[in-house]
Structure formats: structure tokens, C-alpha cells
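Support reply, case 0932

Customer input (verbatim):
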Amino acid sequence: MRHRSVALVTRDPALYHELAGLLRERRWPAVSLLPGDRIPDRVAVVLTSPGEAELISHPRVLTVGEEVDRRALGAAVEHALEVGDPTEEIVVGIDPGPRPGYAVLAGATVIGEGILDSPEATESFAGHLRHRFPSRHVLFRVGLGDPPTRNRIVNALLDHARSVELVNERGTTPRGSRRPRDAAAARLIARSPGTPAHDHLAGTITPGEVSNLQRLSREGSGGRVTISRTSAHRVLRGEITLAEAVDETMTRRPATGAKPTGPREPL
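Our regenerated output:
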């Protein structure tokens, strides 16, 4: 047995056009409403814009941004349409790195995946999931790789999530370009039982981690700059992002042909 329909609730004409096309393409029974309208009991899930979500009272509201990830959205709607335990556990796999990859699973179904802007962004991400799934237990599984960012991720989550596990990442990093690899690794991490993490992790920074971050800064700036060790330490402590460190270094760099004044900080 399935719930009978999806509700498209928005005043945004562009979003309405995009989602209405998706609903017709998938042949999902649907009803179109405006924020504030009564939502029929037969509706299993509501699709709306982020700005209108707070105006909608329904246990399953999916917010859709400007760029619609049809695969992830389709999986989330399909899962919502299936009758099941509304308190089913949500499992989130996180592949640590300067821009962590994540995958959100409900049972065996991937209902969302993507890339976070920084390790500390897991804090707001955890809050977003609590808001979206208020009646469900959310378990975060974090890969053991990349210790500096792993520790920052775990520490951020422990302040805002009830359950965090550390998962051995061996065998979870497929070959391929960075973005698909992060998402695929995050899915495998989400499906791998780990060891519960209860205490904050100490943030130790090694010379190798600093050198690796300097290498990433060179690659990310097209070889134009290398951030200093001081900036690398600030990035690894979570005080600034790598992009901000690169921008600061480029701003401080003397113009072409100019002679630097004062001592130059060693790399």
C-alpha cells in the first residue's frame, strides 16, 4: 500500500514549473496548493521552497533549492510514498576532508548526498536534518581518514547530535573525480557500522598535514600562491577556510615588480 499523493506547495512560479514537470514525468499523484492551504490527509510528502517551509504544517516537508537534484529528490519522494515506520532511523555518512562529502540514507534508500563547504558546516547540517526529520533518530557515521578534519567534524557533531560513530574508511574511497568519489565514499561509510564516539577528539596538527594543506593551496590557486604554515594551522584549527587563507595570502602578496618590505614569513 502507498500513500496517495505528493503536495506541491509554493508561490514561486519557476519552482512550480520545475517540480510540476518532475511530478508528471514520474507519474506521481499530486495536488497543487498555496502556503496556508489545508493539506489533505492523503498527502505523504510536501515539496516547497526553503523560504516557504516554515509556513507549512506537515510531518514530511522536502525543501527544494534553485538547482533541483532530480535523483536525490526522486529518491526522497519515493521513500516518503512508501508506507513504513515514520520513526525509521536516518543514517548519515560523512567522508572527511576540507569539503566533506555526505550521504543521507533512510533504510537502503539514498535520500540525499552532496558536499559541505567546511568541516564546521556539519553543525548546521545536523540542525537541518533535525528540523526535517523531527521524529527520527539520526545517526552520523564519520570516516577515520584525514584526522584534522575528521576531528573537527566529530567535535562539531557531538555538540549537536545524539549518535556519532567512527568508521574505518579502508576500501570506501573509489577511483574517479573528487566530487563523485566523496559521495560514493560517504554512501559506503553510511552503510558500515562503526565505533561510537562519546568524547571530543584532540586536535593534533602534524607537519605532514600542514605540508599537504600548502600543496592544496597551490593547486587550488593554480600555482599562484602557497599559504604560510601559520595560515595552514589556522585552517586546520577551523578558524578559517582554505579558500579564505588563499584569498588572504593573495591580498598580502606584493604587486608584480614590487619589492616586499620587511621580512617574509617562511613557508
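We compared this against your earlier run and they match. Two observations from our side: The first strand starts at residue 5 and ends at 9. DSSP finds eight helices and ten strands in the chain. Please reopen the case if you see a mismatch on your end.
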